[in-house]
Amino acid sequence: MDYFFKGGTKVVVLHTENLKKYYEEKGNQIKALDGINLSINQGEFAAIVGTSGSGKSTLLHMLGGLDRPTSGKVMVEDKDLFSLKNEALTIFRRRKIGFVFQAFNLVPVLNVYENIVLPIELDGNQVDEEFVNRVLHTLGLEEKRTSMPSHLSGGQQQRVAIARALVTKPSIVLADEPTGNLDSKTSQDVLSLLKVTGQKFNQTIVMITHNEGIAQMADRIIRIEDGKIVKGGDLNA
Ligand code: ADP
Predict the structure, then answer these.
(1) 17 — phi, psi (to 5°)?
(2) Is residue 120, in this structure, part of any structural domain at all?
């Protein structure tokens, strides 16, 4: 089956099939993910919500190929992530998936620009300066280009982390509680920028949040409970 539907109006970029992740702990089996079927279109902005322990982080880790499932599939574009050996998976992940975490994870000795282009340079690629400038402009970071991370506010640091995730032009951006360390006003601002930037560059964004207000800004809310999707898994739900 061809999962990457080109030519039509919608392109599925991310797809899971009966995805399961079971952990064994002290003789007990924990079903962190218990049969997740999910399809995300190119350009879509989806929020994953659910109570603590419902499986959100486990799901995001699987979608990004950071951990292997017990069974089931994750397709990114037309690639079955877990058919890849570790090294190939690492390369694929670096090229196709951008991550934004709650902790901004900026390199303290590099300035804003250097932090943003680091993943491109690590991959041995030429920096598309015009694209970097457009992303910096959209995120309101032009004047902070040569600033060091320690001289930035939390919201500005998270915008740099978003820029860093976007400039490699990934197929999907995965964000794990991206506003978890920010106050509510800054969270709204950063999320609006993430949304606008995503739309402008036709990026697909999948974000975990426990904040209902933030989740409402997404195109689709996927609710998970006990490792199962209870709402929003289907494209047309
Ligand atoms: P959430 O992100 O929604 O808070 P998680 O995905 O972190 O939930 O966890 C889902 C379930 O899986 C929880 O019961 C958690 O305790 C369990 N879990 C997560 N990681 C591990 C692990 N490495 N070993 C054992 N259990 C785990």
Answers:
(1) -130, 110
(2) no
Helix, strand, coil content of the chain in percent (nearest 5): 35, 25, 40
Give me ligand 1 centre to Cα 100, in Å: 19
Residue 52 CA: nearest ligand 1 atom is: 4
- CB of 32 within 6 A of ligand 1: the answer is yes
Domain of 30, in residue numbers: 6-105+168-231
Label residue 98 exposed, middle or buried (CB < 10 Å: 0-12, 13-18, 19+). buried
Q: Is 56 in the pocket of ligand 1 (CB under 6 A)?
A: yes
CATH number at residue 41: 3.40.50.300
Query: Is residue 66 situated within a structural domain?
Result: yes
The count of domains in the chain is 1
Q: Is 102 in the pocket of ligand 1 (CB under 6 A)?
A: no
Strands 172-176 and 97-100: parallel
Among 174, 170, 178, 160, CA closest to 214: 178
Quote the tokens at residue 120: 């491109």
The residue whose C-alpha atom lies closest to atom 12 belonging to ligand 1 is 32
pLDDT of residue 118: 94
Residue 2: band (very low, low, confident or very high) from pLDDT cuts 50, 70, 90: very low
Task: Indicate the pLDDT class of residue 9, thresholds 50, 70 and 90.
Answer: low
